Amino acid sequence: MAGDQLRRILAETKTIAVIGASANPTRPSHEVYSYLVATGDYQVYPVNPTITEIDGAPVYPSLAELPVVPDLVDVFRRRDQLPSVLDEVLRLDARPKTLWLQLGLSDEQVDRDAEAAGLQVVMDRCLKVEHARLA
Q1: Which one Pfam family would you cite for this protein (predicted)?
Q2: Beta bridge partners of residue 101, listed in sequence order
């Protein structure tokens, strides 16, 4: 995906769900979540069924329990869990605009299925790195 497409996605995004956000500051998902919150550019919602808060912010157990449908879903999960993440996204009453698979994550079938459902897909890129580079 070209830089101008990524720049447009970042500019149009107002809300982000971080699936797999961690309360452990040494985890990449915590670093990206904290960075996105600190930019002030987005309303960021951590999603993880195993914890209840990160740095005092509530953590939601699933996308369905968020108070909004996020514009972008940033995924920190194992590759074999990507189809179930997409299923969770597609079960929402309204659709996010973008499914973002973090650095190291790609799945061609998930990409095809998500795009067929009308989502933009970014694979194998770090949201923090791309935001810092393009914003």
Answers
A1: CoA_binding_2
A2: 75
| Per-residue pLDDT reduced to its tens digit, 42-68 | 999 999 999 999 999 999 999 999 999
CA distance 111 to 113: 6
CB neighbours of residue 15 within 10 Å:
18
Number of structural domains (the chain) is 1
Q: Which residues contact 127 (CB under 8 A, 6 or more apart)?
A: 16, 32, 36, 74, 100, 102
| Percent composition of the chain: helix, strand, coil (DSSP 3-state, to 5) | 40, 20, 40
Extract the tokens encoding 35.
Answer: 């960075």
Residue 114 and residue 99 in contact, taking contact as beta carbons nearer than 8 Å: yes
Q: Which residue range is the domain that position 47 belongs to?
A: 3-134
